[in-house]
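Input record (one chain):
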Amino acid sequence: MNLSLPGFRVLAAVVLAALLAWPPALAANADGVGEVVDPLGGRDGFVFNLLPKSFQRKPTLEMTFNTEVTDYGRMLRPASPGNPVYYIAEDAGFRQLGWDVGGEKPPAQADMERIMKKGLATNGFLPAAPPAHPAALAVVYYWGSHNKPDPQTAAMFPQLALRNRLERAILVGGKRFAQGMAFSAEYGESPTDRLAKQEFLNDQAKDEVYFVVASAYDYAALARGERRLAWRTTMTANSTGVAIAETLPPLLASGAAFFGRETVEPEIGARRISREGRVLIGTPTVVPDPVVAPAPDSNAAKK
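The corresponding structure, as predicted from the sequence alone:
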């Protein structure tokens, strides 16, 4: 796009006005988590957005979901809303993985506990209430961000950058997906890497993400000190231009249906969240000018 100097000034003024008049804040939607959209919609055609995602009123979250069920987990009775499975939850809190970055403000643990409880109930996992409903599972969950090294470090240490990417790949699609990405890095891309969904997954693993991980263990075995995993669900959302506090609620709302449900391959999704900006103006008051004492007369002082 070629712009003359006057045209560029007009464009810059429009962008600057948007930045000054619209501080982003999460808006309350009907369901509180935004509109579900086609995750591949922007890849099938040309989509142009003037503003970066951090300044968009309705940014789209690119998300992935994956659940791995163990052989032991397949032997357990599946949960459903009509036939629930009861659990004890353990909140392992916020974790910053990959490269350290500053300025992230995670949501409160109480908020995450409430959102996680609601998400697990979608598939029939309910909090234990002994003695009538003893715990069958212990669900340990944590959330956070996984960040890339800075470009200079990545260029100097390519193996470090690759290991960092493969860690993210496990969050995106599990160990098998990470192994496929490692193979492509070693021997080159295959035709399947150019498929739209596969490109989406690869891009997600190459960029920085927010994530949620929930692991379900046999409660009785865990009480004996044995870690017998039944299933593990991971969710990620591209973190570019969005805050973790506004991302995790729609991520969990979108991924709730995957708790305890084995995925043949990683699944993808997208939500368009809404932001609103407002300027709060208080009650006007009149502030009088301060009274300034006159300066002393130097001539009078000499007399």
